[in-house]
């Protein structure tokens, strides 16, 4: 289980510099929703609120503190900052529904409360995060990409 709450910021050491993530939502049935903030930094930015206002690089569901600890990744809890307006609504996640041959038949969309579906993805839906719990290793790969 995670100790992190919405608004809390985490500094994560990567080979390319410091990455930053912010917890945006906690759902009773899933790990926290985390937004990775665009950019890597050589040093910690002085203004946490300004950092948090930066653009979102990607969104994922992950028990971030636990995953980073298990990987022995250097990280620091920096405190809380306001979640940007655009990141305040619970994000919609997409999930492929496949037939026996593995072909995608349609897509489910989950907004934290209910499901909807579409047979084909439009451009906006194709950019939605996948409804999956991301591993710590995958999260680190996504930060480094």
Structural class: alpha+beta
- Envelope shape: globular
**Unreliable residue stretches:** none
Mean pLDDT: 94
Radius of gyration: 16 Å
The helical percent reads 10-25%
Integer count of domains: 2
Please give the largest β-sheet: 5 strands, antiparallel
Number of helices: 4
Distance between the termini: 27 Å
Strand order of the largest sheet: 4-3-2-1-5
The number of strands is 8
Secondary-structure element string = EEEHEHEEEEHH
| Approximate strand percentage | 35-45%
Structural description of this entry:
This protein is of the alpha+beta class. The chain folds into two domains: 1-88 and 132-145, no CATH class; 92-128, no CATH class. The chain is 18% helix and 41% strand. The protein contains four helices and eight strands; from the N terminus they run βββαβαββββαα. The chain has helices at 48-52, 64-71, 123-126, 136-144, and strands at 8-14, 17-27, 30-41, 56-61, 75-80, 93-98, 104-110, 115-118. The strands form two sheets. A five-stranded antiparallel beta sheet has the order 4-3-2-1-5. Strand 7 and strand 8 (115-118) form a beta hairpin. The two termini are 27 Å apart. The model has no long low-confidence stretch (mean pLDDT 94).
Summarize the structure.
The chain has 145 residues and is an alpha+beta fold. It has helices at 48-52, 64-71, 123-126, 136-144; strands spanning 8-14, 17-27, 30-41, 56-61, 75-80, 93-98, 104-110, 115-118.
Topology at a glance:
Layout: E1 8-14, E2 17-27, E3 30-41, H1 48-52, E4 56-61, H2 64-71, E5 75-80, E6 93-98, E7 104-110, E8 115-118, H3 123-126, H4 136-144
Antiparallel strand pairs: 1-2, 1-5, 2-3, 3-4, 6-7, 7-8
């Amino acid at each position: 289980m995670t100790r992190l709450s919405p608004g809390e910021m985490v500094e994560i050491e990567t080979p390319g510099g410091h990455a930053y993530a912010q917890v945006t939502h906690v759902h009773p049935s899933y790990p926290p929703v985390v937004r990775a903030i665009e950019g890597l930094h050589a040093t910690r930015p002085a203004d946490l609120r300004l950092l948090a206002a930066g653009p979102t690089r990607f969104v994922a569901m992950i028990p971030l503190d636990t995953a980073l600890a298990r990987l022995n990744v250097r990280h620091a809890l920096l405190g809380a900052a306001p979640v940007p307006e655009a990141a305040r609504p619970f994000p919609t996640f997409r999930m492929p529904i496949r037939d026996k041959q593995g072909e995608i038949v349609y897509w489910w969309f989950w907004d934290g409360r209910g499901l909807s579906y579409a047979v084909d993805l439009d451009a906006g839906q194709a950019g939605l995060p996948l409804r999956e719990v991301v591993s710590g290793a995958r999260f680190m790969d996504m930060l480094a990409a």
